[in-house]
Every structure is written in structure tokens, then in C-alpha cells.
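FIELD: query
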Amino acid sequence: MRDYMESEAAVYGEVDIEECATIINEHATATRTVTNRTEALELVRGTVLRLNKLNKLNKLNERCDGTLIETDQREMICTFIIRTGHLRGFNAENEDVTEPWREW
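FIELD: result
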């Protein structure tokens, strides 16, 4: 995100990147307290919905214009979320648990 922001005419800024990072970091922290698959999927749902909202709000506010989470970022974020659940034993390594809620 920062590379694109610096090299292209990105319409989002550091605040947007930090907000996205906060959501991801909070997901990682909360994963440690989850005890079963149902809780894990609810956590994933909440994280994905927050990311959806960030993208939409920024688009409506014309801060990001829907460009904050592009293909490369989507792949990294999804891989991170899937892997954190997999390492705890809540989903398969190739199971995209973000897909039911993801709009980015």
C-alpha cells in the first residue's frame, strides 16, 4: 500500500494504511483468545466487515476511491487471515474463510 501510495497517484494516505494495519493487528491479537471454529469464523467475519467498511467509507469520503485494497493487498490479507486460523486449527490451509463476507 505504501509503495503504491508513493509511486502512483493514490488517493489514500498514511492514515488509511494505518487504519487497515490496526484492523489486521487486532485480528492477530484476538486470534489468540479464540477457542473453537465458530468463534474463529465470527472473528474473521468481524475483521472482513471492518475492512469492507474501511474501503467503502473511504470511497464515500473520497479518501481511497476503493483503491486501498488492491489485488496484491487482498491476497496478502486473505493469506494472513487464513493462515492465522489454520495455525490454530480452525480452518484448512487452503480454505478461504474470508470469501463469504469479503467485498474487496
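FIELD: remark
Residues 2-87 form one domain.
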